[in-house]
UniProtKB/TrEMBL annotation:
It comes from Megasphaera intestinihominis. It comes from the Bacteria. This is Tetratricopeptide repeat protein.
Length: 428
């Protein structure tokens, strides 16, 4: 075969000539390593990935020290088995073997499918329970210093969004896995590296790296340090997971009142109940152990059971035994949610003043507004804080006031939260 002519044709992009040159001949001992290379290269460039993989593999067997074929072989594997892998219709064994082969025959770099294969594997494993360890082992195959650290712009549903760089994403996922693997010192070190390295973090990662540091401190028994860090984070973001962390801190300190306050705050904060279903059981167990809260413990167990049934998830025998162990009459859904909501509000705001006022203005977009206390101050609020209240001017409401830190400001401002209709309390 004329490998020199094949090389010139490949350089000129005349791939059909290369295919015609080699297509009618079967590989034999007369083929050099370059014959395999140019034929496989032309096949890859014309998107004939199955044949390209076959020729590249044959060349690798015939010339095991000729590594130039490795890149073609790996790209063909990527396009055949990885790029558009759908676990609902394709064999996971082929996908896994293709990923492992790419990691064996290529190295991380801008011109190889190495990092692409790892990220695709990570995306698949994220959707499978109990795969955190395996996902971590693949992430460890990436060198974060070689990953791009420029943020990305993508178009989702017709709108442009800025998302984290691959390097930031690696730190985020790896730190989560280290928590699950109970490697707390490693996680703290990694999170501090991320906070120090990136001038700007995305998706609230500045909050979540700090949260994982706090969680690791709690797990190490450094409860005071962890609790202080979590309380500082609440000034900037009141996510239910932060309240859950504070619940665990209060539990470690034996502070029952704080456990109820933070647990109630977690359930009142944003987020779907299906994400909180395991915490419902933990909170119910804590209420049981306190004594005097048997009905509310039962209500939390029952809510966890119903959420699992609504999601068609398995309901563990232990949870079924708990709900069956109480003699309380089973409430309907509305009675259950009203009872829980009232309990959460009472515990979250124990000792605080409940104010009354009127919604004064709804801002454009209907995501926020202002309300005014009767004969008093005006307060900013977000409509996500409304409970059974229409976001309309003139609505009479009750509410609580809390401090929060506006972006870029050092001093706290005040806002209205947990806003309910006046009549809801008049009926109590």
């Amino acid at each position: 075969m004329d490998s020199f002519a094949a090389r010139q044709a490949c350089r000129d992009g005349r791939y059909d000539e290369v295919l015609a040159m080699y297509g009618k001949a079967a590989p034999d001992r007369s083929w050099t390593c370059w014959d395999y290379y140019y034929y496989a290269y032309a096949l890859r460039k014309t998107k004939q990935y199955k044949k390209g993989r076959e020729i590249a593999r044959a060349g690798m067997i015939a010339f095991p020290d000729f590594i130039n074929l490795h890149g073609i072989y790996c790209w063909c594997l990527y396009y055949l088995y990885i790029q558009k892998f759908d676990e609902r219709t394709q064999a996971p064994e082929d996908f896994r073997r293709a990923v492992d082969a790419i990691l064996k025959y290529s190295q991380q770099g801008p011109y190889t499918p190495y990092a692409l294969a790892v990220w695709r594997m990570v995306d698949v494993l994220k959707n499978q329970p109990g795969q955190a360890g395996l996902m971590g082992s693949y992430l460890c195959r990436l060198d974060p210093d070689q990953l791009p650290d420029q943020e990305k712009t993508v178009t989702l549903k017709g709108r442009e969004r800025v998302i984290a760089s691959d390097r930031e994403r690696w730190y985020s996922l790896m730190s989560r896995i280290l928590v699950k693997e109970e490697k707390y010192d490693d996680c703290i070190t990694l999170c501090r590296q991320a906070l120090n390295y990136f001038p700007q973090l995305h998706h609230d990662n500045d909050i979540w790296f700090s949260y994982r540091i706090a969680l690791c401190l709690l797990r190490q028994g450094r409860v005071g340090e962890g609790r202080q860090r979590l309380e500082n984070l609440l000034k900037y973001k009141q996510h239910w997971i932060l309240f859950r962390g504070l619940f665990f801190a209060a539990q470690a300190e034996g502070d029952s009142a704080a456990m109820r306050r933070y647990g109630a705050s977690a359930f009142l904060a944003g987020g779907e109940f299906k994400a909180k279903v395991n915490f419902m059981v933990q909170f119910a167990q804590a209420l049981e152990n306190m004594g005097g809260y048997e009905k509310m413990a039962y209500f939390h167990y029952l809510l966890a059971k119903r959420v699992r049934m609504d999601q068609h998830w398995k309901v563990k025998a232990e949870l079924l035994a708990k709900t069956d162990s109480y003699a309380f009459p089973e409430p309907d859904r509305q009675e259950l949610m009203d009872g829980l909501h009232g309990f959460w509000m009472d515990e979250k705001h124990a000792g605080q003043t409940r104010h009354k006022g009127t919604i004064e203005k709804i801002l454009p977009g209907s995501k926020a507004g202002f309300l005014r206390e009767y004969g008093g101050n005006q307060y900013y609020f977000r409509t996500a804080s409304l409970y059974r209240v229409r976001p309309e001017e003139g609505e009479k409401v009750t509410f609580y006031v809390e401090d929060f830190f506006e972006t870029g400001k050092e001093k706290p401002a005040h806002r209205a939260v947990d806003i309910e209709p006046v009549l809801l309390y008049d009926k109590k």
